[in-house]
Automatic annotation (TrEMBL):
Keywords: Lyase, Pyridoxal phosphate, Transferase. Residues 27-399 form the Aminotransferase class V domain. It is an enzyme of class 2 (transferase). Its EC number is 2.8.1.7. It comes from the Archaea. It holds the Pfam family Aminotran_5. It comes from Natronoarchaeum philippinense. Its cofactor is pyridoxal 5'-phosphate. The keyword Lyase applies. This is cysteine desulfurase. The keyword Transferase applies.
Amino acid sequence: SGALDVERIREDFPILQRRVGDDVQVVYLDNAATTQTPEQVIDVFGDYYRGYNANVHRGIHHLSQEASIAYEEAHDRMAEFIGASGGREEMVFTKNTTESINLVAYAWGLNELGSGDRVVLTEMEHHASLVTWQQIAKRTGADVEYIRVDDDGRLDMDHAAELIDEDTEMVSAVHVSNTLGTVNPVADLAELAHDAGAYIFVDGAQAVPTRPVDVEAIDADFYAFSGHKMAGPTGIGGLYGKKEILEDMEPFLYGGDMITKVTYEDATWNELPWKYEAGTPLIAEGIAMAEAADYLDELGMDNIRTHEEQLAEYAYDRLSEFDDIEIYGPEPGPDRGGLVSFNLDSVHAHDLASIMNDSAVAIRAGDHCTQPLHDKLGVAASARASFYVYNTREEIDVLVDAIDDARELFS
Ligand code: PMP
C-alpha cells in the first residue's frame, strides 16, 4: 500500500528482524494485542535513566525539575494528540485502558450510580469495559443494557436510541472493536447520551493508534487508550476527561502527590490531573508514550488509517477466496479498522495459531477478551490478524500460505 513508506519504517523497528523457530524472520500480525516499539521510543528509556532520572513534582534539584517538566509536558502532548484543547488538566496518565475505565467506574460510578439507573454498553465491549461496568452496576444496583450488534458486525443504532433513556447515566462504547474491527459511530452515541443527560465513555484502545482521534469532535466525556498499542511502552495509558467533570469527580487512588493539604483529620486534593495520579508515576513510560505520539504524527495519522484500511481490505479479500473461512465484522470500508478475525472450518483457532507459529507468523487465537460476543457469534474462539504501520501485503500472503498448510495438515 502506498500511504506509508513501509520499507523505511521497518528500519525503525529492530524487533522485526528477529528470527525465531527454525531461523525464520518473524511476521508480526498481533498488533491489536501490542504493537512493536521504534528506536525513537526505546531511546527515551536510555536517555531518561542515563540523563535525568528523578522523582517528579517534589524536587528542588535539577534532575527532578527536568524529569518533572518532561513528564508534565508529555500530558500536554497526549492531550493534543487526541484533540483535547485543555492540555494536561484533561489528561490523566494511567497504567492502561483497563485502569482508565476502572478509574471512572470507581471514582464516578460507585458514587453516582444507584438503583434504577442504567448503564448502556455495546455487545462488542472488551472485558475491560464490560466486566468493570457489570461489577460496578452489581454493587450500586444499576442495570446494564447492551446495544445489539447486527449480522454485519455493526451497532444497531435504532436499538441504541431505544436503550439510551432518561434513566441512563453512562454510555460506554468501544471506538474500534478489537474483535470485529468495526469503527463505531461514537459521535452519534455521544449525542444520544447527552440528549438523555448521560455521560459517554469511549474506549479508544484500538482507535488512538490507528486513526486521527478528536475527542472534542466526538464530544466524549471520557476517552481511554493504552501506550503499548500505539508504538509506545507497556505500563502506561491515558484517560481524557472533560475538565469540569474531572474537577467534580472524587479521586480514585489516594496517597502522595494527589493532595495539597493533609491533616490528621482530612485532606484536600491537588489540581488536575495530579489529583488522579497518586504515588510515583511511570515517568519514563509517560515521556516515551509522548515520543510515540510524535513518531506516529510524523508518519501522519491519516496515512496510518489509509494503510490500515488497505491492509484490512487486502486480508479480507484474500481470506474471502476460501469457502471454509468465516470472517467476522463489516466488509472493508471506512468503518472497518486494520484487523481481521476469522475461523477456518476444519481447524480450531488455537491449532491454527500454533501452525502459524511454525512459520513464525504471530497471530492471536482466543476470545480476544470479548467472550459474550463470541458466544453470540456461536464460537468459543477466533483467529485474529491485526496490522500496523510496518506490515506489508507480502506478510498477509505468508499468512494465507500458512493457512493452506494448516488446512492440509488437518484434512
Ligand atoms: N479495549 C480494547 C478495545 C482493547 O483492544 C484492549 C486491549 N486488547 C483493551 C480495552 C484493554 O487494553 P489494556 O490491556 O491495555 O488495558
